[in-house]
Amino acid sequence: MVVFKLFACCIPVKGFANYIICDLQRAAFINIPEVLYEILTVHKNKEISKIKHNYNKENYRFIDEYFEYLENNEYGFWCDIDEIKNFPDLNLKFESSELINNAIIDIDKNSKHDYGKIFNELNELRCKFIEIRSFDILRICDLCEILYHTNSKIFRNIDIIIKYYRDIENDINENKLFSKFTNINAVSIHSSPKNEKSFNGKLVYSKKVIKTCNDCGEIDIDKFTLNIDTFTEAQHFNTCLNKKVSIDSNGNIKNCPAFNYSYGNVNEGDSIRNVVRSQEFSRYWPITKDQIQTCKDCEYRYICSDCRAFVDSIFDKPKKCNYNPYTGKWE
Ligand code: SF4
Ligand code: SF4
């Protein structure tokens, strides 16, 4: 007896109006009809003849076509029913040993950050992902001065967002930015006259104007993240704020730079380590999409980023999301 088995990394998700399969290995999703979702979940691991008993005869052809599509496009495979135990579902537990794994550091022309102290503390916290955002022009030579403080640290990925200026590419070349700092993931240039990519996609020009931290939080299909880490984290925690610490442009230590309260100030001697260890600091971390109004009915809830800064109340859908899961349309 053979049954169809979805690959463990291909997970069906139900929304109010639409249904998808999240392919966490190929970082993509496909829309599927409601009946296929039902076949893959309610009738999971059943023989095809038994599945067909639940539907009218005129639908049998479609059921065969669905399985043919899934097999041909490598979403799963046929196996003997006795073999199923050898192919367990993905474990959706989320475990991470670090207290903090991502940090935002905001800069504007008035910022007086002690970068040595900030990066030392983040290093001791074993924070892996750093985002540096400058709202005003930050010349590449000045950026390098900041980045020297990240040398010999644990940081795996550094993302940089800076404002456009005319000689930026020359400065990147002259300062050997990408070869000197190999853990730079990407440099995004905002307020640029063009939308373009260069340096093998590491330099991204965007016309989007970013003036303050309030320009963050847009939800867009292009920003969806499909991987095991985000998918499993989204089952249990908030995908923006979990294990995040932010330093706003005035040095305030916050969950998100756009929040209007802080837990201390690095420039006034407060310790990031002490702040993040307080119970109060982690209060937003367990807010999952399954608890958020409207998002809980959205098929994208485990792959979409979240925003808790621009909301009417803390359990409301992000204001900067234009998707309506009840109609299945971006509005
Ligand atoms: S409704 Fe919620 S889960 Fe769906 S795309 Fe918008 S923010 Fe994401
Ligand atoms: S909560 Fe919103 S504004 Fe704050 S970092 Fe996350 S997406 Fe950006």
Shape: elongated
Distance between the termini: 46 Å
What pattern of helices and strands is seen along the backbone? Answer: EEEEHHHEEHEHEHHEEEHEEHEE
Judged by helices, strands and strand pairing, the structural class is alpha/beta
Assembly state: single chain
Bound molecules: iron/sulfur cluster
Q: Roughly how much helix do the residues carry, as a percent range?
A: 10-25%
**Average of pLDDT:** 96
| Beta-strand content estimate | 15-25%
Low-confidence stretches: none
Q: Sheet with the most strands?
A: 8 strands, mixed
Strand order of the largest sheet: 10-11-9-8-7-6-12-13
Structure in words:
- This protein is 21% helix and 20% strand.
- With 331 residues, it is of the alpha/beta class.
- It folds into two domains: 2-86; 102-323, TIM Barrel (Alpha-Beta Barrel), CATH 3.20.20.
- The longest helix is centred in the first third of the chain and has 13 residues, at 60-72.
- The protein is elongated.
- It binds iron/sulfur cluster (SF4) (2 copies).
- One iron/sulfur cluster binds next to loops.
